[in-house]
Amino acid sequence: MGRRGLRAACARRLTEWRVPAPFDLRTFCRAVEAERGRPVYLHPIPGMGSISGLWLPRDDADYVFYEERTSPLHRRHIILHELSHVRCGHRPPPVTDADLLRILFPRLTPAAVRRALRRADYTTEQEREAELLATLLLERLAGGPRPPELPADPAAARLLRRLEASLADGEDEP
Fold it and tell me: Which residues contact 5 (CB under 8 A, 6 or more apart)?
């Protein structure tokens, strides 16, 4: 699916979700819990490295781990990204209890992180969908998308408009 098609599909999906207004993350999590029939637990972890978030569904609950050492907006985006995976019914990579314990301990080697997270098992489509849904949720919370500021230099502004137009036409581009 191209960018426009994915954006339209995500926008439709968002209209089906209960999104509290004004937005409250706890209320949003309760809606996810109601859909899934089980609790959602959010866990900040400092220093997750190149992985900023992780959703681990277990038999009794959904666990969302997110990077603690980042801005509040980025933390919210990470959490919404992982909850978008949950709400879309994406399939996470298999993680054993031993892998989960390695994630929770602070002295993980990069090899252990790659093995535990197995991010390569996600499809690109799932990651794109979750990322776009998190972005659309944040846009809704901020009152809609904000147009980019154009550079003061007229030649640079023309170039930027041409680039945006050419990228907007690439329906099949990733």
Answer: 171
Q: Which of 122, 132, 52, 143 is nearest to 84 (CA)?
A: 132
Q: SS3 letters for 49-114? A: CCCCEEEEECCCCEEEEEECCCCHHHHHHHHHHHHHHHHHCCCCCCCCHHHHHHHHCCCCCHHHHH
| Phi and psi, residue 165, nearest 5° | -65, -40
Count CB neighbours of 62 within 10 A. 22
**Burial classification of residue 84, based on how many CB atoms lie within 10 Å of its CB (0-12 exposed, 13-18 middle, 19 or more buried):** buried
Q: Say how far apart CA 61 and CA 50 lie, in whole Å.
A: 25
Find all residues with CB under 8 Å of 22, minimum gap 6, and list them. none
Burial tier of 53 (Cβ tally within 10 Å: 0-12, 13-18, 19+):
buried
Tell me 20's DSSP state.
-
pLDDT tens figures, 135-174: 899 888 887 655 555 445 666 666 666 665 655 544 443 3
Mean pLDDT of the chain: 78
What is the residue whose two structure tokens read 């640079």? Answer: 156
Q: How far, in Å, CA of 36 to CA of 96, rounded? A: 21
Neighbours of 150 (CB within 10 A): 12
What would the two tokens of residue 74 be?
A: 């980025």
